[in-house]
Amino acid sequence: MTEGSRSVIFDYDGTLVDTASAFLNSVNEALRKTGLRGATRREISSMDLRSIIAERLSEVESHALVEVVFDSMWDEFAETLSSPFPLRDGAAETLEALTKRGIGLGLISKRGGRAGALPLIELRAAGLEKLFRSVKIGVGLREYGAAISNALEELGGRPQDSIIVSDWCKDIEYAKSSGLRAVGIIGGVSDEDEHKAAGADWIVENLNEIPALLIPQ
């Protein structure tokens, strides 16, 4: 990170908390219960969920509404979250290290439905909620660009001085198209090749690697 950098915006599921497998399973369980064909990890990594649902509905000529199935995915996910999922290794240490250097932290979570209320509860339980100066919950892919702009305004950061950290290659693509740099973290939804194709500036396996990359020594 350059000396002018001011902001780092984190994705939540699969990035700060180890929920990627639970999320992928929830997507397929919701599709199955609706009588639709399941989705592979690569499909979920490369496509918007609503696009996957619309494609599956067209295959069976179903008149079910995309939003109904979409909400059911998050409801399935909420059922798996009765106990807070563990933070990914290095999450707390990384957030604290960046905060100590005066870097503003933002959070953009895509959780919707009943699962949407849980990120703040989980972060509060871990003692980390206070570290975030901007929090956006329930952000869909279509609203992601606007959420980035709003978060930067709240953080007082400029795109060229800010960074997105995410396990999903679509977030990386949006970050780059919005003028931010991006860290792709593997072990979540997207793999290393997908992050590279999306244009990630850095790719890491562990959040502990981020301070050394972003904070001048």
List the helices and strands and how they pair.
Blueprint (H helix, E strand, L loop, with lengths): L6 E5 L8 H14 L7 H6 L2 H11 L6 H14 L11 H10 L3 E5 L9 H8 L6 E5 L7 H12 L6 E5 L2 H9 L3 E5 L6 H7 L3 E3 L5 H5 L3
Radius of gyration: 17 Å
- The CATH topology name of the largest domain reads Rossmann fold
CATH class of the largest domain: Alpha Beta
Quote the beta fraction. 5-15%
**What is the overall number of helices?**
10
Strand arrangement within the widest β-sheet reads 3-2-1-4-5-6
Low-confidence regions = none
Arithmetic mean pLDDT:
89
Under the CATH scheme, which architecture of the largest domain would be assigned?
A: 3-Layer(aba) Sandwich
Summarize the biggest pleated sheet: 6 strands, parallel
- The general outline is globular
> What is the distance, rounded to the nearest whole angstrom, between the alpha carbons of the first and last residues?
10 Å
Task: List its traits.
six-stranded parallel β-sheet; alpha/beta; 44% helix; 6 strands; globular; 13% strand; Rossmann fold; 217 residues; DNA polymerase, domain 1
Overview of the molecule:
The protein is of the alpha/beta class and about 220 residues long. Helix 1 crosses helix 4. The chain folds into two domains: about 140 residues, HAD superfamily/HAD-like (Rossmann fold, 3-Layer(aba) Sandwich), CATH 3.40.50.1000; about 60 residues, DNA polymerase, domain 1. The longest helix has 14 residues. It starts with 6 loop residues before the first strand and ends with a helix. Helices cover about 45% and strands about 15% of the residues.
